[in-house]
Specification:
The protein has 95 residues and is mainly alpha-helical. It has one domain. The protein is 71% helix and 0% strand. It is built from three helices and no strands. It is flat.
């Protein structure tokens, strides 16, 4: 059985009702301004988050902390996968 993913468990009819209420409360001419403001706010938040990440990584490099942990983990996972492929190569069934 295939289940359809729902967005926050809200159906299409409920989304339509919410949009209708938003149009009734704010008016059709204000909705683009509200969306533009929300977009600018999200962009500001994303830029601030990126700045914080950059400052943390710069500070870590300045203090000699290794920031390439994810790269090292991926290399180790690759080694384990290669080892498993070598081990299971003769055991694998071909369908």
């Amino acid at each position: 059985m295939i289940q359809q993913a729902t967005f926050l468990f809200i159906s299409g009819a409920e989304i339509t009702l919410i949009l209708f209420i938003v149009v009734m409360v704010f008016g059709a001419d204000k909705i683009p301004e509200i969306a533009r403001g929300l977009g600018k706010g999200m962009r500001t938040l994303k830029d601030a988050t990126n700045d914080i990440k950059h400052e943390i990584s710069k500070s870590a490099e300045h203090h000699g902390i290794d920031t390439d942990l994810a790269k090292d983990i991926n290399e180790e996972i690759g080694k384990v996968k290669d080892g498993l492929d070598d081990f299971t190569g003769s055991v694998k069934r071909k369908f």
